[in-house]
C-alpha cells in the first residue's frame, strides 16, 4: 500500500476538524436509506461532500483521459469488449459449467448460491469449520451486495477489510459511495479522525499527510495478514477454459490475502466470466485505464485451483446469482451485467458528482447502479425506493461515452423507467398522468403541434434578455422551481423548413 494510493481514496485536505459515523451497514445493502430524491436533496446541502466529490472525480477523470489518449485502438478495444460480453451473456450457462469443471479438476470446490442468504450460509459454514474468529478480505462488491460482513459478525466472526478505502469505510461504520474508491466522500482530515478514533493501534500525533496515513494502515493490517488463516475475495474475471480467477488491484493487499492464508474463499457473481485468456487480455487494457487512470494495475493476481506447497491449500468458489438470472432474461436491461466495475460512468456523471453515492441507497451507486440495482431487486413498485433509481439521471449520455464496454446506460434507463410506469398504471391519476393525457392530442397531430409551436414562440417575451424562463405558474412551477427553461427560438424548425422549401422552388 503506497502513500500515492491514498489519493485515490480521498480528496483534498480541508479544515474539517473531526468525523462522525456514516451509515451503519443495513439489513439490505441493495435497498437502504431514502428514495433518491430525498437522499439527493440532503446531500446537495452538504457543501463539504460536494467539494470532496468534485475534487476526486475531476482528478480521476483527468488521469483516465490521459491514459485513453495514449491508446490509438481504444475504440476498437471497446468494440471487442462489448462483443465479448455479448457472447458471454449469450453462452453463460455453458461457460459457468466449464468453469466449474476446470476448478474441480484443479482441486477447488464449487458452490452455487441462488441468493444472498444462501451465499452467506455457504461462506459461514466454510469459515466456521476452520474454527476461526476473523478473516481477511480483498475488496469485493458482491460481498458488499450480500451483506456478508454483517452476517458473519452476527455469528461471531470478524471480516477485516484490507483495501485502504474499504478499511476507512468499515472503521467509520459507513457505506461505500463509489465502486472503485468507496471512501471518495471523505477527505484527509476526516480519515485522520477515523483512524485516531477507531484504529486500535493508531500512532499518536497522526497527521493528515497521505504517506503517514498509509503507513498507519499498513502497520494495522500487517498483523491481520500474518495471523489470518482464512481469506475471502471476489474476482474481476473468471477464465472459463482454465478455471482461473483474477484480481486487479493497486495496493498489494489482495496479493497478501490470496497467498498467505491456508483457505481462500472467492465469492463471484455469475456474470464475471470470460471464455479464455485472449478475452481477458482485452479487459486487462481497459480496466486499469478506466478505473484509476493507470496503464496497468500494480498487482494483477491469477490463481487456478490448489497448488501443493504454494498458496492456500483449500480453495472454494461461491458462484452467486442473487437476481442476475432475472436480469439476463431482459434483452435490454441485461446490459447491466456487462459491467466490469471500473466506475468510469460515475466519474463523468454530473448527477453523481453533485449528490454522491449514498443518495442512491445501494452499494451500486451512480449510473450503473441506477440500472443494475433495480434489476437485481426486481423493483417496479413505486413504494420501493429502488424504483426511483432509473429516474436519477439527466440522460446526457456521458456514461455511455465513458463506459469501456459500451453499455448503453441511457437506453437502459429509459427502458426501466417505462417498466416502472407500466407497472403502476391504474388508480387515481397524478399530475403527470393528467399532463400527459392533456398533451397527447397535440403531440399526436402535426397541425396542432405546429400551432402549439407558434404559440410557444411568444414565450420569448417572457424569457427576457437571457432568453430563459425561470418561473411559470403551477403546475409548470414543478419544473421551473428547480431549473430554467430555455425560451423557444424566434423561428421553429417547421417555419424554417417552410421558407427553405419556398426558396428552393
UniProtKB/TrEMBL annotation:
Top-level taxon of origin: Bacteria
A Pfam cross-reference name: LUD_dom
Region (Disordered): 1-32
The entry's keywords: 4Fe-4S, Electron transport, Iron, Iron-sulfur, Metal-binding, Repeat, Transport
GO terms assigned for molecular function: 4 iron, 4 sulfur cluster binding; metal ion binding
The keyword Metal-binding appears for this protein: yes
InterPro entries: 4Fe4S_Fe-S-bd, 4Fe4S_Fe_S_CS, FTHF_cligase-like_sf, Helical_ferredxn, LUD_dom, LutB/LldF, NagB/RpiA_transferase-like
Residue intervals of the 4Fe-4S ferredoxin-type domain: 329-360
GO BP field: lactate metabolic process
UniProt cross-references to PANTHER family, sorted A to Z: LACTATE UTILIZATION PROTEIN B (PTHR47153:SF2)
Protein name per UniProt: Iron-sulfur cluster-binding protein
Source organism (scientific name): Boudabousia marimammalium
Amino acid at each position: 500500500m503506497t502513500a500515492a494510493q491514498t489519493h485515490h481514496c480521498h480528496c483534498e485536505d480541508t479544515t474539517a476538524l473531526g468525523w462522525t459515523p456514516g451509515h451503519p451497514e443495513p439489513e439490505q445493502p441493495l435497498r437502504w436509506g431514502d428514495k433518491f430524491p430525498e437522499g439527493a436533496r440532503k446531500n446537495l446541502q452538504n457543501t463539504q461532500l460536494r467539494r470532496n466529490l468534485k475534487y476526486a472525480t475531476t482528478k480521476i477523470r483527468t488521469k483516465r483521459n490521459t491514459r485513453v489518449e495514449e491508446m490509438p485502438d481504444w475504440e476498437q478495444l471497446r468494440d471487442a469488449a462489448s462483443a465479448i460480453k455479448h457472447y458471454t451473456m449469450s453462452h453463460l450457462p455453458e461457460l459457468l459449467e466449464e468453469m466449474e469443471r476446470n476448478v474441480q479438476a484443479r482441486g477447488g470446490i464449487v458452490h452455487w448460491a441462488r441468493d444472498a442468504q444462501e451465499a452467506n450460509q455457504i461462506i459461514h459454514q466454510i469459515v466456521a469449520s476452520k474454527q476461526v474468529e476473523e478473516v481477511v478480505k480483498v475488496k469485493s462488491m458482491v460481498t458488499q451486495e450480500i451483506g456478508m460482513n454483517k452476517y458473519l459478525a452476527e455469528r461471531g466472526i470478524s471480516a477485516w477489510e484490507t483495501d485502504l478505502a474499504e478499511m476507512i469505510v468499515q472503521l467509520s461504520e459507513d457505506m461505500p459511495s463509489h465502486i472503485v474508491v468507496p471512501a471518495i466522500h471523505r477527505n484527509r482530515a476526516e480519515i485522520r479522525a477515523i483512524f485516531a478514533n477507531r484504529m486500535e493501534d493508531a500512532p499518536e500525533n497522526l497527521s493528515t499527510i497521505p504517506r503517514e496515513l498509509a503507513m498507519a494502515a499498513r502497520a494495522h493490517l500487517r498483523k491481520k495478514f500474518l495471523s489470518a488463516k482464512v481469506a475471502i475475495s471476489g474476482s474481476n474475471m473468471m477464465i472459463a477454459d482454465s478455471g482461473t480467477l483474477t484480481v486487479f488491484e493497486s495496493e498489494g493487499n489482495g496479493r497478501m490475502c490470496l497467498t498467505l492464508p491456508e483457505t481462500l474463499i472467492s465469492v463471484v457473481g455469475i456474470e464475471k466470466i470470460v471464455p479464455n485468456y485472449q478475452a481477458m487480455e482485452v479487459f486487462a487494457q481497459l480496466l486499469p485505464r478506466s478505473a484509476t487512470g493507470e496503464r496497468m494495475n500494480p498487482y494483477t493476481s491469477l490463481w487456478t485451483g490448489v497448488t501443493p506447497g504454494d498458496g492456500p491449500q483449500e480453495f472454494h468458489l461461491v458462484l452467486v446469482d442473487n437476481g442476475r438470472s432475472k436480469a439476463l432474461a431482459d434483452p435490454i436491461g441485461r446490459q447491466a451485467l456487462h459491467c466490469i466495475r471500473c466506475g468510469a460512468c460515475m466519474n463523468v456523471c454530473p448527477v453523481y458528482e453533485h449528490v454522491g453515492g449514498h443518495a442512491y441507497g445501494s452499494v451500486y451507486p451512480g449510473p450503473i447502479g441506477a440500472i443494475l440495482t433495480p434489476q437485481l431487486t426486481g423493483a417496479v413498485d413505486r413504494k420501493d425506493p429502488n424504483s426511483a433509481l432509473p429516474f436519477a439521471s439527466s440522460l446526457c449520455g456521458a456514461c455511455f461515452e465513458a463506459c469501456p464496454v459500451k453499455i448503453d446506460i441511457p437506453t437502459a434507463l429509459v427502458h426501466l423507467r417505462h417498466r416502472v410506469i407500466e407497472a403502476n398504471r391504474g388508480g387515481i391519476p397524478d399530475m403527470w398522468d393528467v399532463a400527459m393525457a392533456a398533451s397527447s392530442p397535440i403531440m399526436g397531430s402535426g397541425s396542432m403541434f405546429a400551432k402549439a409551436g407558434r404559440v410557444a414562440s411568444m414565450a420569448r417575451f417572457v424569457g427576457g434578455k437571457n432568453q430563459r424562463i425561470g418561473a411559470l405558474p403551477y403546475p409548470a412551477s414543478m419544473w421551473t422551481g428547480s431549473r430554467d427553461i430555455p425560451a423557444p427560438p424566434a423561428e421553429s424548425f417547421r417555419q424554417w423548413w417552410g421558407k427553405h422549401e419556398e426558396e428552393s422552388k
